[in-house]
UniProtKB/TrEMBL annotation:
Signal sequence extent: none
Protein name in the entry: Acyl-CoA dehydrogenase
Keywords: FAD, Flavoprotein, Oxidoreductase
SUPFAM superfamilies: Acyl-CoA dehydrogenase C-terminal domain-like, Acyl-CoA dehydrogenase NM domain-like
Sequence ranges assigned to domain Acyl-CoA oxidase/dehydrogenase middle in this UniProt record: 218-294
Length: 447
């Protein structure tokens, strides 16, 4: 306390002397104000140092009596630097999107048809192998963060075709994450091309969305019931991709008051698919999956019999789905921005590029700002998911931001192209239609 008191007195003394000295006419006459200020600074600094030492000793004196508490460890850093492996994957996927997806996107959308060789060629990227355990033929590297990067870059090529490509990968991720040993051994090798007649990987899709208005993924109208053989399912699912060509469906249904997932082979009796083209996602060939008295065996319930920490988590399943859609929206918005910047610089009006107009320049700048903010929230949520932390709040915030801003960016992309934006001469109208789905779909993909 003596040091503390002395320090406080020294502070007061320094400030007091400096004030009096600076106010003296001689000081002002001969320009001695700066030395006075320096003296006050040194006295104040010394006083603060003595005060801090006194407080530290006082604090230590209290804590030394077996009362010292360890400081909490700092939270893990949120590092946006990609690993070498992730960067290599991004480069490969971006090149594939540039060379194999973009050239097909316009015709596929106009015909509302999935290009014939797209899915087989996309298998060369090895997306299905990442999360499959090594003993079943995969890499055993389930990484939500890497999946976000892949979804973003595929959607940069085309949003709708990316949905079709990621449909099977999403089923693989779900089975790898929550499936029991029997389910994994039965299905995962098939996605590697093993256990199939022609060594070709099977296709699959997740079915969550339903037809009723204001659909809420937590209030499913598709129901499952127990019976002697296993489970009996009834319901209707919408916006299911791949035109009914999938070999396996992962269907969300209410069972005993909880929402669960069921593995349903496409050839099961009572499963029918009806084409139902939508405003967007046209080239993914979405349609309606009808389930009428579908009888399943006892191994159809995803994760049935797992230990507690491997039990299926429906909320986490939906949050992960939202993040995948968000990542695809970011990729599509980035494609729009990359397309618009050269356009507004090359398009002339009144003797100058339209990018010289503040209204245009500000709109482009805002698009970049919103894309970066969307990306940051999605990456943060995916990073928490990968570390095994609670990420529901982060996924909720990311989803709501992406819903609002991706639609705004899609609208502005059409606006900046003027009358051309309303025509199929430019891809902006396709991006606009595809981005609309973000606010209405709840499920269908997985990190």
């Amino acid at each position: 306390m003596a040091n503390t008191s002395f320090g406080m007195k020294l502070q007061g003394l320094g400030l007091g002397l400096a004030s009096r000295f600076a106010a003296h006419p001689i000081v002002q006459k001969y320009g001695l104000t700066k030395p006075a200020e320096k003296f006050a600074y040194l006295a104040t600094k010394k006083g603060f140092q003595l005060v801090q030492k006194g407080l530290a000793k006082k604090s230590l004196g209290k804590n030394n009596k077996n009362n010292i508490k360890a400081l909490p460890s700092p939270p893990p850093l949120f590092d946006l630097t990609l690993s070498d492996e992730q960067q290599m994957i991004r480069d490969s996927v971006k090149a594939y999107a540039q060379n194999n997806i973009r050239p097909l996107a316009s015709v596929a959308d106009e015909q509302a048809k999935l290009p014939e060789n797209l899915l087989p060629s996309s298998q060369d990227l090895g997306l299905n192998y990442f999360s499959i355990p090594e003993h079943l033929g995969g890499a055993g590297q389930c990484s939500p963060m890497t999946s976000v990067l892949v979804a973003e870059d595929l959607a940069w090529g085309d949003f709708s075709l990316a949905f079709a490509i990621l449909a099977s990968t999403s089923v693989v991720n779900s089975i790898s994450r929550w499936g029991n040993k029997t389910q994994q051994a039965l299905w995962l090798p098939k996605f590697c091309g093993e256990d199939t007649l022609n060594n070709t990987p099977i296709n699959a899709a997740i079915a969550v969305q339903e037809l009723h208005p204001l659909f809420n993924s937590a209030l499913l109208q598709t129901h499952a019931k127990n019976n002697k053989k296993g489970y009996l399912l009834n319901g209707t699912k919408s916006l299911v991709p791949l035109a009914g060509t999938a070999d396996l469906y992962l269907v969300a249904a209410q069972f005993k008051g909880k929402n669960e997932l069921f593995l349903i082979p496409a050839k099961t009796k009572g499963v029918t698919f009806k084409a139902s083209p939508a405003m967007g996602l046209r080239s993914a060939e979405v349609g309606t999956l009808q389930l009428e008295k579908v009888q399943l065996d006892k191994d159809a319930l995803l994760g049935n019999g797992n230990v507690p920490h491997k039990q299926f988590n429906y909320r986490q399943f939906i949050d992960s789905s939202h993040l995948t859609w968000c990542a695809m929206a970011i990729g599509c918005c980035q494609a729009a921005l990359d397309y618009l910047i050269p356009y507004v610089n090359e398009r002339h009006a009144f003797g100058e590029p339209i990018s010289h107009r503040q209204s245009v320049a500000f709109m482009i700048a805002n698009m970049k700002i919103e894309i970066e903010s969307m990306r940051l929230l999605v990456w943060k949520a995916a990073s928490r998911f990968e570390r095994g932390e609670e990420f529901h709040r982060d996924a909720f915030l990311a989803h709501h931001l992406c819903m609002d801003k991706s639609m705004e960016i899609g609208t502005n992309a059409v606006q900046l192209l003027g009358g051309h934006g309303f025509t199929k001469e430019h891809p902006a109208e396709r991006w606009y239609r595809d981005l609309r789905v973000l606010s209405v779909i709840n499920g269908g993909l997985q990190l």
